[in-house]
Structures are given as C-alpha cells and as structure tokens.
Amino acid sequence: MPWTQPRVTFKPPLDWNERNLSPILGSNQQYYLDQFEWCAAKNSSNPNLPALFLTICHGFYRNMWKETLRYLLIPIVAYAVLALLSLVSLLSGSFGISALMIPVNIVLGVWFWISCLQYGKDFNLLYMEHVCKKAAANDMTPDPSGSRVAIGCLAIFGILVVYGIIYSAVMSSMISSLFYW
Q1: What is the model's pTM?
Q2: Helix axis angle, 95-136 relative to 146-179, nearest 10°?
Q3: Per-residue pLDDT tens over the stretch 114-123
Q4: Which of 58, 52, 70, 66 minimizes the C-alpha distance to 130?
C-alpha cells in the first residue's frame, strides 16, 4: 500500500557526520544530516515540504524517481487504464462506461493525492536509505540535477496532455450525446 510507513531495513552508518556527503547531498547537506539523525533515532520521518508539494519533480531532482514512482505506481497505472477505457468507450459509443469514469476518476485523484502526501511525509527516511546505500558503494555522484527535473517534468507534462486530450474527447462526446439525441 502506498501509505504504509516504510521501515529502515539496514543499520545506518554512525559516521555519516564524519564523511563528506556534500557531493551527494549538494548544498543542503546539514539539513539532510539533521533529518537523517532524527530518522535513525525514531525510525520515522519528518515531512519534507519540497517532496510534499513538488512530489514527482522533487523525486527527479534528488534522484529518487524510482522511489517516487513506486509510491505513485498504482494510481498512475490506474489512470492509464482509465484513459484507455475512456478511449475505448468513446470509439465504441458506449457512454455508460464513460459515465462510470467520472466517480472512478475522482477516487483515483483522491488516492493519488493521499499517496503524494504520504511520500512527502516519508521522503527523508527514504532518502536516508538511498544516500546510505550510495555512500556504502562509494558512489559519490551528485543527486541534485536540474536537467533530470526538466526531462522528467517534460515527460510527465506530455503524458498529462495526452490524458487530458483523451478525457476531454470522452467528456465532450458524452455531453454532446446527452443533448443531441
């Protein structure tokens, strides 16, 4: 489930304050080190506001896009299935299915935003695990990347445009069929 609290499955290194993690963390090293200490002590996470409000874009920026997509996978796949069903119902002229799409779309929207809120709450804990794994593998490549954000956001924008076109076509076709019998 996307809203279950993840648990740390490894013992974080105790010397991360002694290691220079600035190549990985960038300019926010002290913020994240403080958060990592809190996460390790409590096995919980404080909400991360950028992850909360910029969920997918922040995931791309911090190289956490796989974890972000894992949290949002079910609602995203459900939206894709909904778009395909909407397109099929539009092409087949079955407007009963299209009418069912409206409440399903509302439920999926609520589920998506609950998943985003949970991800924002759990981000620091997930990021601690990510950074510790990178540091243990001596992979000091930087996580922050503006180009990864641009590419990821353009891909998401493209997907949303396609979804919006399909959904608009279905809704306009359904509305026109209601008024022009």
Answers
A1: 0.72
A2: 170
A3: 888 888 998 9
A4: 66
